[in-house]
User: Which sequence fits this backbone?
């Protein structure tokens, strides 16, 4: 009897150990293309050990996960423009206190990317419980963020309430219905040997320690105002984009040039100044956004993302549709809502540059 009992105990322990050794890698949850002005920018893929079509379940997931993206734009994407995607996504999907707590980590993440990302570059953002968040480019390690909460904040920029793109978000949540052609295309994209060698010269980024104490002290005067922006983090139905044929679509040339400028490195203070400004501006635009009655009567709903460039006085320099709705009424209202909201608050000294660009995600949903 005693021998049988010991044998069962040993067998159970051996099976558990074997399961740990053979634990599956995170599997593909979904893959999608992010576009701007009808042009593909990158293909992104979300991997998770627990697959799900539920965004909230994935955001709460405490099992290994990974975000990957591969640049497909022939022009690549500047480091500043790439950084802005994350900064804005964090601003509209996170509460003010979370932004402040993760400010130093966000600055460390931004500093990992030393230059322009080029076509076929492969970025991996890997979350491993107990180990934090590791970032690599073309399989060259760039750095580690020790705070595990940082991953869910980054993931929210893709699948949160106000995602980078609604279509992109939906594609990442298609577990069980993944586009096989897109999956094959994603797998086939690889960086060149020369590019891998170039990235090796970037050197490792500093490891963040998650304290964010400097960020909190540098923005102490903004904390009361930050609390008011929590509401701005919660997206409500809003903003459409005009048809790509409008004159506004020709304006992105100016912002693209501004993106190429190096500019000063981000600090916790300048980062939070940008994020809080974006939150305030979007909140103001939402207050001016309407649901066109004719669109409502016709059952028209959709999503729009508008790029806005302002000068230091908060006056609009240009607007353009990055992601448009199929309905002209919604596209027009998106641009009109931005124009009705001008002028915006003048830029404070923590935000450098003659101009400032941000994007506004808008969504119209028919009442049930």
Assistant:
């Amino acid at each position: 009897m005693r021998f049988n009992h010991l044998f069962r105990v040993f067998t159970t322990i051996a099976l558990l150990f074997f399961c740990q050794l053979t634990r599956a890698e995170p599997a593909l949850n979904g893959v999608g293309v992010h576009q701007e002005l009808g042009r593909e920018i990158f293909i992104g893929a979300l991997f998770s050990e627990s697959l799900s079509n539920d965004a909230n379940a994935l955001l709460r997931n405490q099992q290994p996960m990974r975000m990957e993206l591969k640049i497909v734009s022939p022009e690549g994407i500047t480091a500043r423009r790439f950084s802005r995607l994350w900064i804005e996504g964090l601003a509209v999907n996170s509460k003010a206190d979370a932004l402040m707590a993760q400010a130093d980590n966000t600055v460390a993440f931004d500093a990992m990317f030393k230059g322009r990302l080029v076509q076929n570059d492969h970025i991996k953002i890997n979350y491993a419980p107990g180990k934090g968040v590791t970032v690599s480019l073309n399989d060259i390690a760039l750095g580690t963020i020790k705070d595990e909460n940082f991953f869910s904040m980054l993931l929210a920029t893709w699948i949160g309430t106000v995602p980078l793109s609604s279509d992109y978000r939906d594609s990442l949540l298609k577990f069980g219905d993944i586009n096989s052609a897109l999956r094959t295309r994603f797998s086939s994209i690889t960086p060149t040997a020369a590019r891998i060698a170039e990235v090796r010269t970037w050197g490792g980024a500093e490891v963040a320690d998650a304290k964010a104490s400097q960020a909190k002290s540098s923005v102490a005067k903004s904390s009361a105002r930050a609390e008011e922006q929590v509401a701005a983090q919660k997206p409500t139905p809003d903003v459409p984009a005009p048809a790509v044929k409008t004159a506004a679509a020709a304006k992105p040339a100016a912002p693209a040039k501004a993106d190429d400028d190096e500019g000063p490195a981000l600090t916790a203070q300048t980062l939070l100044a940008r994020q809080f400004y974006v939150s305030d501006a979007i909140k103001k635009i939402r207050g001016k956004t309407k649901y066109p009655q004719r669109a409502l009567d016709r059952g028209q709903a959709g999503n729009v993302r508008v790029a806005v460039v302002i000068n230091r006085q908060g006056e609009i320099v240009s607007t353009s549709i990055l992601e448009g709705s199929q309905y002209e009424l919604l596209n027009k209202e998106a641009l009109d809502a931005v124009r009705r909201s001008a002028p915006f608050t003048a830029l404070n000294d923590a935000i450098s540059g003659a101009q400032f660009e941000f994007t506004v995600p808008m969504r119209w949903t028919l009442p049930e």
